[in-house]
Amino acid sequence: TQEAELLKEWLTTDFTMSPQLLPSQKKGAISLVLDESFLSDKPESYSIDAGWKGIEIKANSREGILHGVQSLRQIIRQDNNHFVVQRGTITDYPEYPWRAFMLDEARYFKGKETVLRLLDEMALLKMNRFHWHLTNDQGWRIEINKYPKLTEIGAFRDSSEINHFHSNVFDGKPHGGFYTQDEIREIVSFAAVRGITIVPEISMPGHASAAIAAYPWLGTSGKQIDVPTYFGVHTNLFNVADERVMEFFSDVMDELIALFPGDVIHIGGDEVKYEDWKASRAVQAYMREHGL
Fold first, then answer.
1. What's the CA gap between 188 and 191, in Å, rounded?
2. Using one digit for the tens of pLDDT, what is the confidence trace for 183-202?
3. How far, CA to CA in Å, does 202 sit from each of 30, 32, 131, 206?
4. Half-sphere exposure in the Cβ direction for 239 (13 Å, CA)
5. Active-site residues: which are they?
6. Rounded to whole angstroms, how far apart are CA atoms 224 and 209?
7. pLDDT digits (tens, 9 = 90+) for 34-85
8. Quick one: which of 138, 246, 260 has its CA closest to 201?
9. Closest C-alpha among 54, 219, 193, 186 to residue 120
10. What kind and span of H or E run contains 156?
11. Which of 1, 55, 186, 224 is surrounded by the most beta carbons within 10 Å?
């Protein structure tokens, strides 16, 4: 199973052991037991029973098995040339079903290897939701096949503001990067094996500057802009009165849904300044027509 393979990998990398998988035998030095009746009212629960004859990790779900494996990693100690686990029983389950970490890559792109390392650290801490902020004013970080300029243009900026918000001091260094859909699939799979669901965030209707830089018709003003180099809240807004923009949202969501199997996609909705909409005759007419 994947859980046994992960246990083997971690025992090897953490402790330089050389464990062997024995799937056809009923009992090994460490046994993983999936029992749906075990603490059935406690999702993700597990127990570790460490005795003279070996160690048994029991859980009612694969997530529970993973948590037990992580706890075992944390209690192994080295005594001279031996690896030791204190005899006893641990029974454990999470207090909260949603245990999340958010990474904002719209401002600064990190790259696949950093994300994979982060997911491993999350798994060690039994965290189960990775909130992945992939678009904002300063960058669009995910390949969308129907709109290639989102990453060709929107994923790169000429410089970055430094020191603090509104410092008006810039590093003069181009910055950019994005994830291909193949990379997204690899990362989603890597996370799922470790019991982590990814929640992608695509900001709308504000924080739209990078997308508008790629496709000016997405913006309310229709003006060509560059991907911003300064931080803080920008005034560029998607033109929600334009049917093409609503079709754009739908197209982007279709590709996201195909990539991310979790049941939540975050669409932002925050920090909208209304100047563009107030100045737009089309948006004002749309508001009157729909009683908004």
1. 5
2. 999 999 999 999 999 999 99
3. 43, 39, 11, 10
4. 21
5. 271
6. 10
7. 999 999 999 999 999 999 989 999 999 999 999 999 999 999 998 888 899 9
8. 260
9. 193
10. strand 156-157
11. 55
